[in-house]
Specification:
Elements: H1 2-43, H2 48-64, H3 66-71, H4 79-82, H5 87-122, H6 136-164
Length: about 180
């Protein structure tokens, strides 16, 4: 169990670092959006490349941030029943949800997105819009984002098994012997 919890902590640290890095992408996307608006409405000029980079950044923030969001328990769930369960009950619901829904869905998304990315990359796909950007970088975000979400799902499953084994608590998510 100790090795699995070490793996879970490593995955947590990876998604935490990515989540913190994505904060800078939010700032960058905001600055680009503001500059685009100023140039478009102030000077009457426009650039498809600058518009597309905004969309690419938003896609990267959303997709690459999903694992970080899961780590921080920020995904939508129905708390009507979940909130009334004991810690073991919540751990069991999370464990079953991860095993039966989260992991199969993320792996399926990676399975279907990877060939789309590869075709785009091998064909050097470009945006059909004048002055547009390469498409493969944004298509890579799909399997990468779902990969990070799947990894965080594995970490959460490990932690829920540890809770059920009495080694960890949901509130602290640190081994009991280290507290």
């Amino acid at each position: 169990m100790k090795a699995l919890l070490t793996l879970a902590r490593a995955i947590d640290a990876l998604n935490e670092q990515i989540g913190h890095a994505l904060r800078w992408l939010v700032l960058l996307a905001t600055l680009i959006s503001a500059a685009n608006a100023l140039v478009r409405y102030g000077l009457g000029e426009s650039s498809n490349a600058w518009l597309e980079i905004q969309w690419y950044l938003f896609g990267a923030i959303f997709l690459l941030g999903a694992g970080y969001t899961l780590k921080h328990n920020g995904h939508v769930r129905i708390d009507l029943i979940y909130g009334r369960l004991s810690e073991r009950g919540r751990a069991l619901v999370d464990l079953l949800g991860g095993l039966l829904f989260l992991l199969p869905f993320t792996l399926l998304m990676i399975w279907y997105a990877w060939p789309m990315f590869m075709a785009s990359w091998q064909g050097n796909e470009m945006s059909p819009d004048s002055g547009g950007l390469l498409r493969w970088p944004v298509k890579l975000m799909i399997p990468a984002g779902f990969g990070l979400l799947a990894l965080q799902g594995v970490a959460e499953i490990i932690k829920r098994i540890a809770v059920l084994a009495g080694v960890l608590t949901l509130a602290q998510e640190a081994p009991l012997e280290q507290m």
